[in-house]
From TrEMBL:
Protein name: Acetylpolyamine aminohydolase
Molecular function per GO: histone deacetylase activity
Pfam families: Hist_deacetyl (PF00850)
Domain Histone deacetylase: start-end pairs: 172-474
Alphabetized PANTHER family for the sequence: HISTONE DEACETYLASE HDAC1-RELATED
Taxonomic path: Bacteria, Pseudomonadati, Pseudomonadota, Gammaproteobacteria, Legionellales
């Protein structure tokens, strides 16, 4: 993003700034990772320099530098605009990748992540790669048509009007599908608390709740627009990159997570489908899906749910088998490979603890072998009993062996060794095979599988997560059926 420019441009300052920009734009690498929004910001910046009274005092070759930069920016904007026009031809009912909008990223500053980067920087790096995946439909989190009453609520929050913001929330119709789905998971009091925190953040730019949770003035709007983009753009396959969600509970945030998007999406699907779906959840974040499990157990166990939760109980306290026994008020049953199983009404919950279920030979990690076997088992049952399936994949790349963040590798008061990581974490081959199998199962069972939601949770080492983004997009490109031939797939029946 452009640096803040001088209010008073001296000739020497102008020269230095333009030469610095020229170094950035000299090669194609920097230019290739910019979005139209960021290029327009650079264009505004250079135009401001050109309009400066001191610009005419610069030597001609420096003035040519400014014009050359503008020409490069304009050419790149034109090229990207052509690509954006082509994207309109994509059938979003088949598949899309969702990333935060420029405005959403701007409101993620100082939000903690698992390493040195905050959520803004982390997601910006991923979004830059995804924005350049021109062979895939990539949409931002402002790709929605939210009703005006939501915009009114956002304006009241931005103005710091607490009471009128609460009034605006209460004026949203009870049948609004976004609010209805949200309140099926989170309490109205908690939603009001998020609004209040966003207003409090106006004073200093941020509101720190604890070491894991930081709120900015636009946080509530970011959460709602991200959710609305997913709900209002129904698709057979959704790949969502945004703030993590799987630790959020009914009435409180936890572990970087504020709302539980996976749980909200399940409630939404329950509302819009005439026939009940059977849900398969495979969580692969190194930390347990504790908030998601708690919400499902308390509010959604009447739904048919098979939850395979893959995690390492050592990296976060209170998540081992004994702790889960207390949650379910039931002793788990071992089903092989030290995997434990609990049942509550129609919820089948499998805890796959990576500290116990680890790689013993060079092959697919047994945790993912188990998850794939369960997915295939559920598909076979769907064929026999004639019901439909939705697959949800809250994914954390912090379970990758190359993760360096302490929240993924700090166990027993030390950082995990490379040899242990190779046994208790996933590698590129594991994840590539798993994703490819998911696509193959989907393509063979398109009539049974009504939807797949893949949502990014953890993953903090930049080199590792950028490689995973690239691998994932390659797999999507290779396995997704051609958009133009998918007219028979009308997406989920909303």
């Amino acid at each position: 993003m452009p640096r803040t420019f001088f209010e008073k441009h001296s000739p020497s300052n102008l020269r230095s700034e333009l030469l610095a920009l020229n170094r950035l734009f000299k090669g194609n690498k920097f230019l290739s990772i910019q979005t139209i929004e960021s290029l327009n910001e650079y264009k505004t910046l250079v135009s401001t320099y050109i309009q400066s009274p001191n610009y005419s005092k610069l030597k001609p070759y420096i003035q040519r530098v400014a014009n050359n930069i503008l020409n490069k920016i304009n050419e790149r904007i034109y090229a990207l605009s052509s690509i954006e026009d082509d994207k309109e031809l994509y059938d979003l009912s088949e598949c899309y990748i969702q990333i935060p909008s420029h405005n959403a990223l701007a409101q993620m500053h100082h939000m903690p992540a698992g390493s040195t980067e905050d959520q803004q920087t982390r997601l910006m790096h991923m979004s830059q790669i995804l924005s350049n995946c021109h062979s895939l439909p990539v949409i931002t989190s402002d790709h929605n048509n939210l009703p005006e009453y939501w915009s009114q609520l956002f304006r009241e929050i931005g103005a710091g009007n607490r009471l009128t913001a609460f009034h605006a929330l209460n004026q949203i119709p009870a049948d609004d599908i976004i609010l209805r789905s949200l309140l099926a998971v989170h309490s109205n009091e908690y939603v009001q608390q998020l609004i209040d925190y966003s207003i409090q953040a106006l004073e200093n730019g941020v509101k720190e709740i604890n070491s894991d949770i930081v709120i900015t003035p636009g946080t509530f709007e970011v959460l709602i627009t991200d959710l609305a983009t997913t709900l209002l753009n129904p698709s057979k396959m959704i790949f969502s990159f945004g703030l993590p969600t799987h630790h959020a509970f009914h009435d409180e945030g936890s572990g970087f997570c504020l709302i539980n998007k996976t749980a909200v999406l399940m409630k939404y699907w329950e509302t819009v489908h005439a026939e009940p779906l059977h849900y398969i959840i495979v969580g692969t974040d190194v930390n347990r899906d504790n908030g998601l499990c708690d919400i499902i157990r308390q509010t959604s166990s009447h739904m048919n749910i098979c939850h395979i939760d893959v995690f390492d109980s050592r990296v976060y306290p209170g998540q081992n088998h004994l702790d889960i026994n207390k949650e379910f008020n039931l002793t788990g049953t071992e089903v092989g490979e030290q995997i434990k199983y609990w049942k509550h009404n129609n919820l089948d919950y499998y805890a796959v603890d990576l500290s116990l279920t680890f790689r013993k030979k060079i092959s697919l990690h047994p945790a993912l072998q188990f998850a794939l076997a369960k997915i295939k088992e559920q598909i076979a049952q769907a064929k026999t009993h004639h019901h439909h399936i939705a697959l949800l994949l809250p994914t954390g790349w912090d379970s990758h062996e190359d993760e360096t963040a302490p929240c993924g590798k700090w166990v027993n008061e030390r950082m995990m060794s490379l040899s242990e990581a190779s046994k208790t974490r996933f590698n590129d081959g594991d994840l590539t095979y798993f994703y490819e199998q998911i696509f193959q199962l989907y393509n063979k069972n398109r009539e049974l599988i009504k939807g797949i939601y893949w949502g990014l949770e953890g993953g903090y080492d930049r080199a590792m997560y950028e490689r995973q983004v690239s691998l994932l997009t390659q797999i999507i490109t290779a396995h997704l059926p051609h958009q133009a031939s998918s007219s028979s797939s009308a997406g989920m029946s909303y």
